[in-house]
Amino acid sequence: MQNEKTVCWINGKMVAPEDAVVSVFDHGLLYGDGVFEGIRYYNQKAFRLSEHLQRLRDSAMVLNINLRYSEAALGRAINELILESRQQQGYIRLIVTRGVGSLGIDPVTCQEPTVILIASPLSLLAADKRQQGIRVMLSGVRRIPVDVLDPRVKSLNYLNNVLAKMQANAAGMDEAIMLNASGNITEGSADNVFLVKNDMLLTPEVSSGALAGITRHLVICLARDHGIEVIESRLTPYDLYTSDECFLTGTGVELIPIAEIDGRKVNTCPGTMFRLIEAAFQKTIMEET
Ligand SMILES: Cc1ncc(COP(=O)(O)O)c(C=O)c1O
Asked: How many angstroms does the Cα of residue 56 sit away from the middle of ligand 1?
C-alpha cells in the first residue's frame, strides 16, 4: 500500500504516487510482459545493486526487452529516489515492461519499454516470527517448469507464486514452498530455501526451478567463507522434513528461520548455523551500506 513515504519515478521523471500511472495498453498490464527487481536499501544505499541490475539485464535479454537506460543511469535514478524517500531504509521495486502497444499480444506493436521505480517502506515481518521462526507448507501448486518459462527470469508473470501464497494464506501458514513437476523442492513464493543436515548447508539447484536469488548467492558465499560445505542439489520433501534446520532467504524476508513444515517441528529453530550466517549477513549489510 502506498503511503506518504512512497516515491515513484517513471520513464526518467520523479512523480508523486497519486500520479504514478501507466496506460491500460501497456503490455506489462495486458500480458505480464515485463521484468522486475526487488531491491533493499539500508543507510540510504542500495544493497547489492550491481547484482540486481545484472539479473534485470539477464531477465530482459531472455525476453528481448531493451532496458532503455544504461545500468549507470538506472543506478543514478535509484540513488536519487532513495534520497527523495528521506528514509534510511526501504524497498525499491524496479519494473521494465514491454511498453504501450496495441491490444494484440504481438510485442512488435510496443514502441518503447516503460521503466518504473517505486521506493517504499517495507512492511517488516513481525519480530516474534523472525525470532521464533515461521510455519510453512509444501504447496500443491507446482513451480512453472524450467522448459516452459525458466524461473531464473524474474518476469511480471508471478501467478504461479501468487497461487502458492494464496494456498498458504488459506491454510493459515506463513509461506508455501513449491515443488517442481518431479516433486523436488524449488523455492517459496518470493524466497529461496536452505536446509542444514549433518553440518552441511543444502539448497535446491537453480535448475530445479528457482530464482537465482541474490540473497541465496550471498548466503552461499558467507557459509563457504566460514568453512561450511554448501551443496546445491536436487532436494525432496524428505530432505526438508528430516533437516536439522531450515530457513528462507530473499530481499524481502532477508533470512528467516522455519519452525514448522507441514505440521512437523523442525529440529532446531533458529539453529546454530542460521545464527552464524544471519550474523554474517547483517555484518555484510553494515559493511556495504
Ligand atoms: C520467486 C522468488 N524466489 C526467490 C527470491 C529471492 O531472491 P533475492 O534474494 O534476489 O531477493 C525472490 C525475490 O526476489 C523471488 O521472487
From this structure: 12
